[in-house]
Amino acid sequence: MRQLPVCWMVGLLGVMMAISGWLEAAAPPSRPNPTEVEKYLTQLGDRDFWMRHRAQEELKKMGPAVLPFLPAHLSSRDGETRRRLLQLSQQLQYQRDLAPRRVTARFDHAPLDQVLATLFWQTDLRTKWLGEECKHQPRFTGSFQDATYWEVIEQIAQQTKSVPTYFHETLDPQGEETQPVIGLRPTRRPARFVCSQGRFRLQLIHVASHGELPLLDEEKYDSPSGGLYLTLELFREPRLQLADLGMPQVQAAWDERGRSLVPLPRHREANTEEGAGPPGGVGRVPPAGFRGLPGKRTDEDEVVTQVEVVLARPYGEARRIARVRGTLPARIVASFQTTLLLNEIRRGASFEIQDQRQEIRNLWNKASGKILQLQIVPKDRRAADEEDDQTLDIHRLQSLLQFRDDEGRLCPSTITPSLFAGPILEVQPSSAGKRATHIFIQEPILRSVEIPFEFREVPLP
Question: What 8-state DSSP symbol labels residue 383?
Fold first, then answer.
């Protein structure tokens, strides 16, 4: 056998090491060894403090994959073990729900569809190019090492001159089940002032200045007062739903000469400690200094939310905002907890949902029994048209309930009007043509987050 030259062997070894390193960085974490997990869980109650501390740190390094092992040990008689397990469980759940998807890849003048396919393979977040009218598909050059999804999107948007937007992609032939997707829409001028933090992206899309001052201090006069109004647009990773958006809190804002643009609060908040607050003695802006703008909606899902940050009126010779920094509080739907309510759909069956007992009053079969029509009303309520603010209406029930066949496939449901029974739920067969047999409830798990933002060198209007 003929030997390869030494230089060839060294080069081949380098390529193999680079490929293995890339695969190792891009591959998802492997499932932890159950024996090793159980060993560390037992050591959480050890007499030696450093042994307990080391066991907790090792379990934390294994990541959210150890969460299924924790409930069995929460009933331990040792109080130290329970305390550390609860602390560890909270940390890992937060990491599981809010850790951003990351990308490690390198592209050299690659077609955009190849780039987006790699992005989907590593993050499971679908991104599509919406510039079908363009004559040639854009190409992308870039290198990423453990970068977040939004950091990658930002570089792609800058090179391809596009902006991200949301749209919904159909998953089933009936068009009942959809998933949110990020689309890249061509534009003449991509957004200049963008910041991203983890699973979120904030961009500054509008700056307005108002010079008028209200003469009457009454709530009914909602005219804008003098100052700067910065409109922020919030994006998030697809499949991450927004439950609530708070008022932005500005910590610092300066013009190009270092003069503060943050209006100082007139009184100290009751829970604020002496000396607390951002550096430089700039207090947080009172909540009355902010306004929320209605978000754009697609179908029933709020996909883009805009908020307005109000700053002090700039000095006459000021030409730009050198820096504005703050946080945007929000509550997001991190995941869903699915619970079986009923494993046999029949007339007279009842189940409890949100502390209320519901009953299937009537059940009708259509199309050989595969399409079901259900009249669901609160149990022991006789009049179908009786109004009660405390009861769940049929629209609320439809958003909470899930119908599935005996093999777990989803059965889409719609609301159908009826002359004699009022609105009823009509449940279609699954994609396999089977009727629904089980009813589940899908309850959201909420997480509170504070999304930091910082913009620099913003020109004033």
Answer: -
Average pLDDT over every residue of 241-266 = 82
If asked whether residues 299 and 378 sit together in one domain, one would say no
What distance, in Å, lies between the first and last C-alpha atoms of the chain? 75
Tell me phi and psi for residue 260, to 5 degrees: -70, 140
Note whether 323 and 424 are same-domain residues: no
Sorted by sequence, the CB contacts under 8 Å of residue 52 that are 6+ apart come out as 43, 44, 45, 46, 80, 84
Measured CA to CA, the distance from residue 311 to residue 293 in angstroms comes to 16
Q: Tell me, what CATH number does 328's domain have?
A: 2.60.40
Structure tokens that stand for 395 in this block: 């629209």
Residue 153: what pLDDT?
Answer: 93
**Residue 70 buriedness (CB in 10 A; 0-12 / 13-18 / 19+):** middle
End-of-domain residue from the set 98, 118, 137: 98
Model confidence pTM above 0.85: no
Sign of the C-alpha dihedral computed for residues 111, 113, 115 and 117 taken in this order: negative
Question: Could you report the per-residue pLDDT of 115-132, keeping only the tens digit for each?
Answer: 999 999 999 899 999 887
> pLDDT per residue over 393-424, tens digit each?
777 788 788 999 998 888 888 888 877 777 88
Q: Which residues contact 458 (CB under 8 A, 6 or more apart)?
A: 193, 204, 207, 230, 320, 321, 324
| 398 and 357 share one domain | yes
| Tokens at 111, concatenated | 């077609």
List the domain range (segments joined by +) for residue 411.
344-383+391-436
